[in-house]
UniProtKB/TrEMBL annotation:
It comes from Rhodopirellula maiorica SM1. The keyword Glycosyltransferase applies. This is Glycosyl transferase group 1. The lineage of its organism: Bacteria, Pseudomonadati, Planctomycetota, Planctomycetia, Pirellulales. InterPro entries: Glyco_trans_1, Glyco_trans_4-like_N, Glycosyltransferase_grp1. Pfam families: Glyco_trans_4_4 (PF13579), Glycos_transf_1 (PF00534).
Length: 332
């Protein structure tokens, strides 16, 4: 489960605790492999309970890699949401919309008008700016059109929320008339800490001696995980320490090939684990790695908060807001 999914799941449960009724309209599960999970019919919508939340899942074109395929994936969800949302969801009093992808705003505006309800647009990454910074797209006509869509969506929404000060500052600078609010990622501290370590997690990380440096999350292009492999290679044989990458994603295959090709024995990749197992894995580690391939304005990885709650020192290779938060907490 990625950071947005975890945050939204927790938000939904807390809203229910406060007396709200929560319903989710989303895609058939396919993250991070880019394939619909086997227990779901990839051609049909699916309605089920996730905890206390009624969840409506709509079919879409799935893609793990490739820019054009990803765009097709995003727009196929827009079509699915427009088609099945009014049929399978109750009319809400408020629509809370998660971006990216930015193109979900087409579905948001359609459904808000159809249901005659306000919508809050949550920005966890600034698109298209982040995509340009990561080299996914080049500045040009397409990105200018995306920027127009971005600003039009901000102005159409009832309010804008974001996961960092930098995101909200960017929105306010360009749309000062828009209502905004920072809602950071976070954790429940009672679920993390040294007391959550167990033998299963220790066995998964390995019994070799030396401190364990752990990265748990998406093995993606923006994470710059080759830097961890570079660090592992640079250590002298007499220096203790092992690196464990827990997760899956588009960069995993290339990382595994490089580890094998260059015999980087200090690095181990562990398959993605259920969300509820992450506290135990962190509790068995000695240092948490927060890796970013580049500085992306507004990006504050949720792994920072999990590491803090686990009482782990943090090794960060970025500046900006993530570095400021770690320095303020004195944990890295």
């Amino acid at each position: 489960m990625g950071a947005p999914q975890a945050r939204l799941s927790e938000l939904g449960e807390r809203l229910i605790d406060l007396g709200w009724e929560v319903e989710v309209l989303t895609a058939l599960p396919n993250y991070p492999t880019g394939k619909v999970f086997e227990e779901f019919d990839s051609q049909q919508p699916h309605v089920h309970q996730v905890g206390r939340i009624r969840t409506v899942r709509v079919p879409l074109y799935t893609a793990k890699q490739g820019f054009i395929k990803r765009i097709r994936c995003y727009f196929s969800f827009v079509r699915g949401a427009k088609r099945f949302g009014p049929k399978l969801c109750q009319r809400p009093d408020l629509l809370f919309v998660e971006s990216p992808p930015l193109f979900i705003s087409y579905a948001a505006k359609y459904l808000a008008k159809r249901w005659n309800c306000p919508f809050v647009f949550n920005v966890s990454d600034l698109w298209p700016e982040s995509a340009i910074r990561m080299g996914v797209v080049k500045p040009g006509f397409a990105t200018k059109m995306a920027e127009r869509l971005e600003l039009a969506t901000y102005r159409r929404a009832t309010a804008i929320t974001g996961q960092s000060d930098e995101i909200i500052a960017s929105v306010q600078a360009r749309c000062p008339e828009v209502r905004t609010q920072v809602i950071t990622n976070g954790v429940d501290p009672s679920r993390f800490g040294p007391g959550h370590a167990d033998d299963e997690a220790r066995q998964l990380l390995g019994a070799e001696p030396g401190p364990i440096f752990i990265f748990a999350g998406l093995l993606g292009l923006a994470q710059g995980l080759n830097q961890i492999l570079d660090l592992a290679k640079s250590l002298e044989d007499s220096t203790p320490g092992r690196f464990v990458l827990v997760g899956d994603g588009p960069a995993r295959e290339d990382l595994e090939k490089r580890i094998q090709r260059e015999s980087i024995d200090r690095v181990k990749i562990v398959p993605a684990q259920p969300r509820e197992r992450i506290p135990a894995l962190l509790a068995c580690a000695d240092v948490a790695i927060i890796s970013l391939g580049m500085t992306i304005p507004g990006a504050v990885p949720s792994k920072i908060y999990e590491a803090m709650a686990s009482s782990l020192p943090i090794l960060l290779n970025a500046d900006g807001e993530p570095a400021r938060r770690i320095k303020e907490a004195g944990c890295g």
